[in-house]
């Protein structure tokens, strides 16, 4: 028994520094991945003709959404869906409007880069171009080496997408007026917003799907009447496009309402110009009972979910041209 | 002569099927060729005239030294260019483009905020239109993140 305890003690003494060293090494690599991901996020060389970066559609001032109904691709192919915001995106299991098989943000980031339905950044089959363009930049050479030392700084879709994932996982938005009031345990500053909050978590049952704190349950629902689908310019069957299951037709992931006031237009196809229009599109019995005043109150509450520290955070902004290393 | 034929060919391509344009865009059809500036020093040779459409030549992004860092920077394989235009009065102005290049209008080192965006009607040859409330003065018009070596470009006053 004593021998056993001594063995464990010696193991812990030896193992502890190694764990710390490992942790420190991971941190340095991780920091480099975040810095690299940030540069890549704003780099249009990730698109076939150099015209689009991730940030072309994901604008920080709009909580990383886009002001258009749908954004055309680098080769002018029409966009399929409204660009979703990226606040707290690292907290979601299901990514994009309608996909439940993505392993994480790394795999997701390759959808716009090399996806073909629709063509967005148009890099399908052009991994060699990524390697060539980024590889001729001395700063990228250093960053890839620091971020992926075990892979000797190799530049390919895998390392690019993992760096993008690391950067996007830093997108934390939790300093809205609502958050501040909740922390202080006080009411929201306007009567409309406070009544809207009561409605949201009460009679209107918005919180059932737009569940706090993410203001999304990260699940899939059909909330739009089928006849409204005729508005769609392109064929979009939601989750069933991925699963092939007819039961998943017209089912979409609940979007987060954090910073929603900054991300118009709304709905998976961008067909709702305002938050009020978006609420009206819900095919719910509660919607039928909402008065104009109640709608105003709900919108006033959603306004309090805007986090200006998030959209102005310099850590997420376009990096300086100067190489950090 | 060779340039004349080139302009005719490009203009024919751009406007193969004519669309009916509103009066404020009537200048869109008459094109004169202009090269872009690659740096601020070359700007006097790339001076735009209000209400006059130009077929502008664009240059590879790595060769350009912008006056201010573009909001949407193009990659190394994209095209862009610099131009200047002097506005005699304050008002609402529209920049009209045949391609999807990003537009920044710079004065005193800062980009003017846009107030509206639109696409042109079908067969108009217009890819994008961006409106700005501008003061009088000289602006640098920067095109960035373009896919092509050329584009038709027009700056017009709306009101």
Key terms:
heterodimer, A: 325 residues, mainly alpha, Cytochrome Bc1 Complex, Chain D, domain 2, two-stranded antiparallel sheet, globular, B: 159 residues, mainly beta, Jelly Rolls, six-stranded mixed sheet, five-stranded antiparallel sheet, 11 strands, 8% helix, 42% strand
Describe, in plain words, how this protein is organized in 3D.
Chain B: Keywords: Signal. Chain B: This is Homogentisate 1,2-dioxygenase. Chain B: Residues 1-16 form the signal peptide. The complex is a heterodimer of chains A (325) and B (159). Chain A contains 13 helices and 2 strands, in the order ααααααααβαβαααα. Chain A has helices at 2-41, 54-57, 105-114, 127-135, 138-147, 157-168, 177-184, 191-201, 240-243, 275-281, 285-289, 292-303, 308-311; strands at residues 220-221, 252-253. Chain A has a two-stranded antiparallel sheet. The longest helix of chain A has 40 residues, at 2-41. The radius of gyration of chain A is 23 Å and the shape is globular. The model of chain A is unreliable at 5-24 (pLDDT under 50). Chain B is mostly beta strands and 159 residues long. Chain B has one domain (2-157): Jelly Rolls (Sandwich). Chain B has 1 helix and 11 strands. Chain B has one helix at 2-14, and strands at 31-35, 53-57, 59-60, 79-87, 91-97, 102-107, 110-111, 114-118, 128-134, 137-146, 150-157. Chain B has a 6-stranded mixed sheet with strand order 1-2-11-5-9-8, covered by helices on one side. Chain B has a 5-stranded antiparallel sheet with strand order 3-4-10-6-7, with no helix packed on it. The longest helix of chain B has 13 residues, at 2-14. Chain B is globular and about 40 Å long. The A-B interface holds A 42-47, 49-53, 55-56, 67, 72, 74-76, 133, 136, 318, 321 and B 61, 69, 72-78, 100, 117, 145-147.
Describe the secondary structure blueprint for this structure.
The complex is a heterodimer of chains A (about 325) and B (about 160).
Chain A: H1 2-41, H2 54-57, H3 105-114, H4 127-135, H5 138-147, H6 157-168, H7 177-184, H8 191-201, E1 220-221, H9 240-243, E2 252-253, H10 275-281, H11 285-289, H12 292-303, H13 308-311
Antiparallel strand pairs in A: 1-2
Helix pairs in contact in A: 1-5, 1-6, 3-6, 8-12
Chain B: H1 2-14, E1 31-35, E2 53-57, E3 59-60, E4 79-87, E5 91-97, E6 102-107, E7 110-111, E8 114-118, E9 128-134, E10 137-146, E11 150-157
Parallel strand pairs in B: 1-2
Antiparallel strand pairs in B: 2-11, 3-4, 4-10, 5-9, 5-11, 6-7, 6-10, 8-9
